[in-house]
Amino acid sequence: MAIFGLWVINKAGGLVYQRTFADGLAQLTSNEYLILAGTLHGIHAITSRLSPIPGQCSGAQVIEGETFKLNVLLTLTGTKFVLLTSPAEPTAAIDTLLQKIYTAYSEKVMQNPFHTPEMPIRSEAFDMSLTALVH
Amino acid sequence: MTIYSLYIFDRRIRHCICVYYHDWHRTRRPKSAVEGGILPAVSTAVFAPAADANSSALSGYASPRNTLSSASGIVVAVNEMNSQSTASPLLQAPPSPIAVSSTGLAFDEEVKLVYGVVLSLRNMIKKLSGRYEIVDLSENLPERYKIYRDEQFVNYRTSAYKLHLFETLSGYKFVMLSDPGIESMRLVLRQIYVGPFLEYVVRNPLISMDSKEHGIDNEYFRTSVDRMVRGLSFYL
């Protein structure tokens, strides 16, 4: 049971929020995180085109490594929330948590009149509600 | 629960070289590859039918390999385009696809997308994990003999399918698309590698492993992979 970190990626593929909650993964520079987020944005778009069956297909929702996984929530507005957790974490619990994080985001970030959309998030209120949600 | 397709990629990382393709319950197929977009002997299912008659007439005399397919009807070597027409006793009848639709992509483009996704995710997972450990700690071994091991990308899931990766130590990448409900296919992919792949590809003297001209498709390999996948409990 470990939640390693959270990324928020805007609809253009830019990383607007990155936070580490627990150790266990590599410590990267903010520049490296930006590159990874951009890559993930592109991969996400491709994965929805590779579907072997007809019908709607979402992009990648869970990406698994051996010791951790990335859980992606794509909102209707194109913002992506990426939660890095340990692989044993149950999917249902993560989905609820991601929904709660999305709620916190809309309350503490989007409703803030001083926040510019699609720009990096610097909000103490958002930080605090995330801390409350994750711990 | 079902299996959709299997891709095998060559060990050369910088180039996207698909050496084998097989599909099962796939109802949305790519268009045929453009000529020259993909190696011959990867899969008979996705070749451009154009110029087939022409090339088979030519290669029937030109290719020394063709002697293999004449008498027995079993091609142990490279499966050329023209062997599609020869009835093979080993292969089961291909699954009759029901209402196959197209992805709108040509096969060679699809292969590039699959490879791109797999390679990017693999590098991303490696970078994120920060794990890089030496497995064999024999101290007196020279540096180049030590085995390093880092985090592997295992799979990703979308609402419609799940993609699994198994990479061998030599760098061959086995990629399988399955139903999103299936937990892990790594063992199955490993079995394909340990069983049919080693037996009918690596130990097959008629296949050159790093060929730039041919894939690794041959009848024995295709049949045993097919049998193995059809025998899986979640193949329905």
From TrEMBL, chain A:
Q: Does the keyword Kinase apply?
A: no
Gene Ontology biological process terms in this record: endoplasmic reticulum to Golgi vesicle-mediated transport
Q: Which GO terms describe its cellular component?
A: endoplasmic reticulum; Golgi apparatus; TRAPP complex
Q: Which SMART domains match?
A: Sybindin
Superkingdom is Eukaryota
Its main localization is endoplasmic reticulum
Pfam families listed in its UniProt record: Sybindin (PF04099)
The record's listing under Gene3D superfamilies reads:
3.30.450.70
Keyword check for Ribonucleoprotein: no
* InterPro entries, per the entry: Longin-like_dom_sf, TRAPPC
Q: Subunit structure of this entry?
A: Part of the multisubunit transport protein particle (TRAPP) complex.
Family, per the entry?
Answer: Belongs to the TRAPP small subunits family. TRAPPC4 subfamily.
Q: What is this protein called?
A: Trafficking protein particle complex subunit
UniProtKB/TrEMBL annotation, chain B:
One GO cellular component term noted in the UniProt record for this chain: endoplasmic reticulum
Sorted alphabetically, which InterPro entries does this protein's record hold?
Longin-like_dom_sf, TRAPPC
Extent of the signal sequence: none
Domain of life according to the entry? Eukaryota
Keyword Transport attached? yes
Alphabetized UniProt keyword annotations = Endoplasmic reticulum, ER-Golgi transport, Golgi apparatus, Transport
Q: List the coiled-coil residues.
A: none
Q: Where in the cell is it found?
A: Endoplasmic reticulum; Golgi apparatus, cis-Golgi network
User: Which terms does the UniProt entry file under GO BP?
Assistant: endoplasmic reticulum to Golgi vesicle-mediated transport
* Complex and partners: Part of the multisubunit transport protein particle (TRAPP) complex.
Q: Provide the family line.
A: Belongs to the TRAPP small subunits family. BET5 subfamily.
- Entry-linked PANTHER family: TRAFFICKING PROTEIN PARTICLE COMPLEX SUBUNIT, TRAFFICKING PROTEIN PARTICLE COMPLEX SUBUNIT 1
Protein's recorded name: Trafficking protein particle complex subunit
